[in-house]
Amino acid sequence: MATNNIIRLKRGKEESLLRHHPWVFSGAIVSLPDGIEEGDEVTVTDSDGKVLGTGHYQIGSIAVRILEFGTDSLPADFYYNRLLSAFILRRGLGLIRPDNNCFRLVHGEGDFLPGLVVDIYGDTAVMQAHSPGMHFARRTIAEALTRLPEAGIRNVYYKSDTTLPYKAHLDPENEYLAGSYDGNIATENGLLFNIDWMKGQKTGFFVDQRENRRLLESLADGRKVLNMFCYTGGFSVYAMRGGALSVDSVDSSSKAVALTDANIALNFPDDPRHHTHDMDAFRFLSEMPADTYDLIVLDPPAFAKHRSAIKNGLVGYRKLNGKAFEKIKKGGILFTFSCSQAITREMFRLAVFSAAAKSGRKVRILHQLSQPADHPVDISHPEGEYLKGLVLYVE
Question: What angle, 0 to 180 degrees and rounded to 10, lies between the N-to-C axes of helices 234-241 and 254-267?
Answer without folding.
Answer: 30
